[in-house]
Amino acid sequence: MLWRGPRHRHPDPEGLSPRPRPAGAAKRRNATTLSEVDRYLRRADPVLRRLIDERGPIDPREDRRRSRPDAFEAIARAIVGQQLSTKAARSIWDRVVAALDGNRPGAGAILAADPEALRGAGLSAAKVAYLRDLAERVEAGDPDLARISELSDEDVVAELTAIKGVGRWTAEMFLIFHLGRPDVVSTGDLGIRRAVQLAYGLEELPGPTDLERIAEPWRPHRTLACLYLWRSLANAPA
To answer: Dihedrals φ, ψ of 138, to 5°?
Structure first.
């Protein structure tokens, strides 16, 4: 697929692209001050400038980076959310927590839970196995979640993808929503790919190579750019 730069007019059969900015939008945009990173992204990419200007900068209270403070839960939630819509992932996770009889969803609680109860919460047999493998590894200290924040992004990915059922997407969600790393772009995330397709007027979903190229100007703030793209579809991972 050849990408020739942003095109601001494109067909939108599903009605997912942002609507034209209504009167007074500029005033509302100023209600939340643009950060230095927002200004950087606006200068770097006219498409991101439009996404920021149409709905304003992301309010700090709605910025979900580091929104999952517990490392085990962050990985477990990403596993549960694999290949699911945001709404479905959130619903199943809530049922998983309920199946733990009120216990915090840590490694010990997962191992103590009846696998059939987890299946009854809506998990596939494979995801139950993945959660148990994660719990067993964490209990054994491999990976050492207490020290994982000391690793580079790629080393975190390497540590986590050694766990059964944890692929690169899951590791990238951990980098964003637990560690709050600033320069992560998940080229395999369907939501980001769809948002890029719509925002940039592409005829097809961009592949990983195309997305890497489009995202290059966003460095070293690709994470925030992804948050704006997710927001444009209102479907950031749960």
So the answer is: -65, -40
Architecture of domain 71-170: Orthogonal Bundle (1.10)
Tokens of 175: 């980098």
Cα 25 from Cα 20, distance rounded (Å): 10
Can you tell me the distance from the alpha carbon of 170 to that of 147, in angstroms, rounded to the nearest whole number? 18
- Catalytic site residue 38? no
Residues of the chain with CATH 1.10.340.30: 71-170
Beta carbons of 19 and 43 less than 8 angstroms apart: no
pLDDT along the chain (238 residues), means of 10: 44 37 46 86 97 91 79 92 87 93 88 95 95 95 94 96 92 93 94 96 96 97 95 77
Q: Of the listed 38, 45, 189, 210, which one is catalytic?
A: 189
Q: Is the pTM of this model over 0.70?
A: yes
Residues of the chain with CATH 1.10.1670.40: 33-63+184-233
Judge contact between 228 and 35, C-beta under 8 A: no
Residue written as tokens 């992560």? 184
Cα-based angle 222, 201, 237 (whole degrees, multiple of 5): 45
Beta strands in 102-185 (DSSP E): none
Residue 190 identity (one-letter amino acid): L
Tell me the C-alpha distance between 190 and 49, whole Å: 22
- Name which CATH class applies to 33-63+184-233: mainly alpha
